[in-house]
UniProtKB/TrEMBL annotation, chain A:
The protein's name: Acyl carrier protein
Species annotation: Aequorivita viscosa
Domain of life: Bacteria
Automatic annotation (TrEMBL), chain B:
CDD domains reported for this sequence: SDR_c
Protein's name according to its UniProt entry: NAD(P)-dependent dehydrogenase, short-chain alcohol dehydrogenase family
One Pfam family named in its UniProt record: adh_short_C2
One of the record's GO molecular function terms: oxidoreductase activity
Entry keywords, A to Z: Oxidoreductase
Taxonomic source organism: Aequorivita viscosa
Length: 79, 248
């Protein structure tokens, strides 16, 4: 994961319902029409399998934007 | 003699360091049983042991995913009259994230460990005639949730294992049953709450006519299944869900 662009494209690939280019660093997850509880599960599993970083549902609730998620993952990858 | 009494019975409890396992150890010891507690964390096992009434209870620190540890338990335990399998993990993976690694992770502890422990104890003739075996399963095997493919699968597999065991060992009057539990307030509950968020969990709780379960609720039913009072019950599934699946 070199930059946020790469991170976003990884996310978009997993969400089949999202048209490429929908996600921006400032996009709020809750504003997405397709947002559902399934998305949280996918994000948690994706970040676990792709980056070997554990985030919880509570972690996800504590942030709202794509860039905040990126920062959280980046920080935990370093630890 | 009181058919609900567990006096003169020795019961092996896995996952005995916390949650349903710890509460079960306490409940069955109070009904007169001698308890052998096993789990990975020795310190927490000792804490549970301290709460038990006086007796010949013992703890065996063991990681059940390790074959050697299972051999060690089989060697160390005296002849037993009951096994309570309550060790286990809950992990959620959406279908498309499942690979052999995730399968191994969940099946090792939720399926292989209880199966191999049971068969090893039987093979070594450590299980007395008339013994009762109880597996902690989940209503998720009939009503899976998103992300629960692997977890639900391990529990469905355990149900079938238990039924086969009941059939094969009926001549020795050894019984085997599973408890299909819904959400019970254990450390696993707290973990699940962290994963899916408190908000979602509270919403889920509103669907339970009697609310979420307490470890004691399940432990009492386990004690009944271990006692002579349930001597005609085998190869079955007991649903404990506070009315969740009763209807709308």
């Amino acid at each position: 994961m070199n930059n946020i662009g790469e991170f976003i494209s990884t996310l978009e690939t997993e969400f089949d319902e999202l048209a490429p280019g929908t996600l921006k660093p400032e996009t709020k997850f809750n504003d997405l029409d397709e947002w559902s509880s399934m998305y949280s599960l996918i994000i948690i599993a994706l970040i676990d399998t792709e980056y070997e970083v554990t985030i919880s549902g509570e972690d996800l609730m504590s942030i709202s934007k794509v860039e905040e998620l990126y920062e959280m993952v980046k920080l935990r990858m370093k630890q | 003699m009181n058919p609900f009494s567990l006096e003169n019975k020795t019961i092996l409890v896995t996952g005995a360091s916390s949650g349903i396992g710890a509460k079960t150890a306490e409940v069955v010891a109070n009904l007169g049983a001698t308890v052998i507690l096993t789990a990975r964390n020795e310190e927490r096992l000792l804490d549970v042991l301290k709460k038990l009434p006086k007796g010949e209870h013992q703890i065996i620190q063991a990681d059940l995913t390790d074959d050697e540890a299972i051999n060690e338990i089989v060697k160390q335990v005296p002849n037993i009259d009951g096994i309570v399998h309550s060790s286990g993990i809950v992990k959620h993976y959406p279908v498309k994230f499942i690979s052999k690694k995730q399968i191994k992770e969940i099946y090792e502890i939720n399926y292989e460990a209880p199966v191999v422990l049971t068969s090893s104890l039987l093979k070594s003739k450590k299980v007395n005639k008339g013994a009762s075996i109880v597996f902690m399963s989940s209503i998720a095997c009939n009503f899976p949730n998103k992300g629960g493919a692997l977890y639900s699968g391990t529990k469905a597999a355990i149900n079938s294992f238990s039924k086969t065991l009941a059939l094969e060992h009926a001549p020795q009057k050894i019984r085997s049953n599973v408890i299909l539990a819904a959400m019970v307030k254990t450390p696993l509950f707290d973990e699940a709450e962290k994963t899916v968020s408190k908000e979602l969990m509270n919403k889920h709780g509103k669907q339970y006519p009697l609310g979420f379960g307490e470890p004691e609720d399940v432990a009492n039913t386990i004690a009944f299944l271990l006692s002579l009072a349930s001597k005609w019950i085998t190869g079955t599934e007991i649903v404990m869900d506070g009315g969740l699946s009763a209807g709308m």
